[in-house]
Queue: 4 jobs
Job 1
Amino acid sequence: MTNESAADETRLLVHAAVDGELDPANARAVERQIAADPALAAERAQVETLRRVLREKLPPRPLPPHLRPRIEAAVGLQRARSRPSWQALAASVAVAFMVASASTWVLVRPAPGDRIAEAVVDDHVRALMASQPIDVAASDRHTVKPWFNGRLAQAPRVIDLAPQGFALVGGRIDVVAGAPVPTLVYRHRQHLISLSAVRAASLPGTARREMRGYNLIGWNDGGVAYWAVSDLGAEELAGFARAFRAAPVEQ
């Protein structure tokens, strides 16, 4: 047996020990191995944490009577009852691990609002890395807004916030959830703010979060979800959002 296969079998035994599937003698042997190996101890801690999260988030449901025999036959438990085997144990542990992994992905996968926020941050970072963070450079909203006409189905709301300390420097077209969206770019001191207007993406009120060192604020207005992202402090970015939302609708 190779070192790799032996290690895999030991990890399976750890899973079996956590599930209470070992006899007392083998359980004590596995406990001694765990006590002597930090990697096995970490494996057990991870499995126990996963089991706890699954119990809290996905309470067990009874299997339909017709389904249990099929599962037992598939993983070899019917044979194992008459003649226990490591193959049956390994199969049952593998099935449990696959089910747990799929359930964990359901628990941790980002919500739609989070995926949009991540896309907005990605677009902001790409713009900062480019030679120019904007496609149209202008401080006049009457120049920026018409630039979007003809490129997008609807131009965004463009606000002059220079009196509040947030100068309009231009705009660009980003891609969020596979669709082109207008993004306005403002400057506050040496910090750039990207403001994307995503249609058909509602938010539960005002959303604030931090991702990869950038602050984000999102809100709904007129059927559009606005996302502002910047390396500004959270309160300064909140001030920008308040100023934009309070500005009168342009004629």
Job 2
Amino acid sequence: MRLLFTAAELAPLVRVGGLAEAAGGLVAALRRGGVDVTVVIPDYGDVVLGNESRRSLNVPSWAGPMTVRSGIHPVAGEVTLLGNQALARSHPYVDPTGIAWSDNDKRFLAFSAGIAALRDDLAPDVVHLNDWHTAAATALGGSSVPTVLTIHTLAYQGVSPASWMSRLTHDAAAFEWYEQTNPLAGGITLSDRVVAVSPNYSREILQDESGMGLHELLRAKGPALVGILNGIDTDEWNPEADPHIVTPYSSDTIELRRECRRALLDLAGWEDSKAPVIGVVSRLVDQKGIDLLIAAIPFLDNMPARLLVLGSGLPEPTAALRSAAAANPSRVHFTDGYDLALAHRIFAGADLFAMPSRFEPCGLAQMQAMRYGSIPIVSPVGGLVDTVVDADASRLGTGFIAKSVTTAGLVDAVHRAVRAFKSPRRRAAIQRRGMAQDWSWDDPAKQHIDLYHDLTP
């Protein structure tokens, strides 16, 4: 099986969100499963490759000139980078102020043209595209190769001026969207299979309220739309061998976790009381329900519980968290930014872990939290439902699911989680069940390989 796999991000080379982690984890697992993967991302200009080769790529004049850099990355293995120097940017999507680059439409449509040119040159068995940044490749170039498109989130569709349809070489009508160009809509229509990143999300996006305007296109795919749950890198997220935490531990030695908890308390400047610590590692954006979390802070005193947040994003929730931490430093601690080592320490040291997302196609943090014995509190959406079993509804519970995506629903779930935390025996049982789950990429990779084979009889 020869696969051309392409995305805007790839861990650990280019990391912005879950797309990078999913792409990197799946590629590595596919290679372990015997798939010959050519993985392609944009050349953002700062990736050093060993044994590097360069060549020019024949793309339309509006997309070029384009250079192909191929070589070996010490972690990601063989990688191919597509670069147009005039379109290179320091961040994949936004400028230093957080505003989207004004030419993102040209940058990623040019990238799609490069993907199509590589596909025509390499003639792989299957092409695997990810999100809108790559979707226009389905209407560019000349060859016909079975195509899989993974939707990591419908929220970003790459809607661009209508003039871009004139650059597409075929099937441009599939991209027409209310007198504009919609790369994701066209990619959904033209791909042979569409993959949503969790089974529950694949059902949610068929509904008017969750389909972000694309529900009818997705319904039309019928059985060609499937849900495959993402995994996590279980080597990186492994409390038994994590260099970022003070003490390694396992489900058999879970009592050692208290040393990680104590280190997290020291970081926050908190005393080692019985009040549980609720950890959060998140982007501070509307999707993640951070406003619901902020509204729940006044209820922490009566539980009692403490909140420790690591995240960056929109100015309003950032300012609100700063204000909450300043007003109540014994109850709320906030770190603005993203620190990978600190994220590991939060998963290892927090008693509970909150994800009040409004929508969550798959979610990775809840799996990482369970891997470390931090009990998740999640919204009833997307992949959170596929991965967390409510401990008040099942003896096999691994966390707590809010009954609604509201502050009241979140507060109720936190109350129930705090109650469970106060029972050492019940707490340890929930923790061990979560830690016993297999969140590796092995099974998702097998499902993808089966899907590829279905397309190549």
Job 3
Amino acid sequence: MKQDANPAVFVVDDDTSMRQAIGSLIRSVGLRVETFATAHDFLQSKALDVPGCVVLDVRLPGLSGLDLQRELTSRGIMLPIIFITGYGDIPMSVRAMKAGALEFLTKPFRDQDLLDAIQQALEQGRVMRQQKAGAADLRQRFEALTSREREVMRLVVAGLLNKQIASELGISEITVKLHRGQAMKKMGADSLAALVKMAERLGVASSKD
């Protein structure tokens, strides 16, 4: 498996023997692993700044696995979660999956099933980080536009013609073309369709603010 900034697998389980067994299994395939007995310990660690995934027991003392899932989501932390439980609680698994969990394994599970889920989670995390980085770069390019270029871009992607934009903004059509060209150049858009897609990702597709 291709490593991405040395991703780690974080195991959060209050059962010492289970935590150690899972940690040993993950290390046996050459992956980096860190283990925690409680959700609180995990949240207090530096794990939140490291790419990877979480193997998380649903039932934990104090903050439960589902509580931790909600906390990570609220903080905008993109760590795919694989839930494990010894109870086979179906309603709980449904809630976990609806909230974005990648997998839900019931103890005892096959080692290979967990390893397969971890590989999938690490790949998902890699894709999510790439998308986040791309979105940040796109936002940076948009913020580099002048206020007039942004106005023109918004009206262009809203479907207005150059002469309509000129009328809307009280400027000449030639000036509109100039701003439009500069906006596309700075955004890295080689076509109107590409500019529209960028605007949609930025949430400015049809705004005339």
Job 4
Amino acid sequence: MIDVLRYFHPVLAAWRLGAYPELRGGRGALGAQDVAVGLAVAALWVAPYLVSPALPRGEPFDPDLLGAAGRPAWLTLRLIGFVAVSPLVEELFVRSFLHRAAEAWPGWRDFARLPVGHAQRVAFVVTLAWFTFSHVPWEWWVAAPTGALFNLWLYRRGRLASVWLAHATANGAIAALVLLGPWELSAFL
């Protein structure tokens, strides 16, 4: 089996040495509020599809894509990507880099010195559009309010880690509904 921690070690070491300052600081401790926002986002994301099963959705996720023997490994990799990697990468790109880049442009003020989570109208619209349209078309109408909520949560908390935790919680709750619930939601995973 591949030693997964070996691949994450450089990232964790860099973080411990002060890299990714956008994941530090902010107002209040990480925790219950961030998780509550994530659960609200998960409800926002799936509730319309539970209420109206006729709404369009993507192809269902096939946990047996690698065969029955590969099912546990495939589900594990999919869940790690869906719950841990995807929210972290999306938030680092969208609400750290893209948000500050939109604020710095035009003129490209000192990008690195711009604070993460500074409320700015152009940056809000740019990140909202990117977040919405980076999802598949049948998700746009729930991705847009989700992106707006994540932007507002970043402004309130002043910390990217809070948004990452909310995003990871939302994805984890959706994954739990898909895997444990009797509903036909497998297209969300």
